[in-house]
Design a protein that fits this description.
It is a single chain. The chain is an alpha+beta fold. The chain has eight helices and four strands, in the order E-H-E-H-E-E-H-H-H-H-H-H. A four-stranded mixed β-sheet has the order 2-1-3-4. Strand 1, helix 1 (10-21) and strand 2 (29-32) form a beta-alpha-beta unit.
Amino acid sequence: MKIYDVANFPNPLRVRIALAEKNALDKVEFIPVDIMNGEHRSDAFLEKNPQGTVPLLELDDGTYISECSGIIEYIDAEFSGTSLTGTTPKQRAVISMMQKRAEENVLDAAATYFHHATDGLGPTLETYQNAEWGQKQGEKALHNMVYFNNVLAKSDYVAGDTFTVADITLFAGLIFAGFAQISIPSELTSLLQWQEKLSKRASVMTVC
């Protein structure tokens, strides 16, 4: 089992936290991808993943899985330990819903801001930019920080009273937002307290 990724990038971080939660980091061979020199756009990599994104999971039978949600779902089912994706129909539905909201409205929004409204990864890799769209997505990320602050004012974790993949995604999204200089407003105390709590979680401290 191999994972192609870039250490400390937000989406690879999601997968590494999930593996750490399952005590399975040593069950995977990590293969670094040289994003800055365009390895993810090479013919060899695109043959594995036409989307040209990391992380990418390669199973022993040659199957490739490239979406974080799919990779973490596989990890959750493959390795023992507390479920990250839920065990009942209701749990799975709520966790999936909240994970999608965190991914689309915070992580992806912050990423779009970074790639379009800043220098991003530099002119060689940022071949198209739309600054106005990037700014709108930065505003979207901030707006949804307010939403998640309200959620976390009422529950310990993003999808209820237990840690799940939804927490992993939001945590990675806030890291990316901070890297892109989209700061969490100081009045969002529930979100800030939750972020501090997760930063001290064993799995997070192992991979961050």
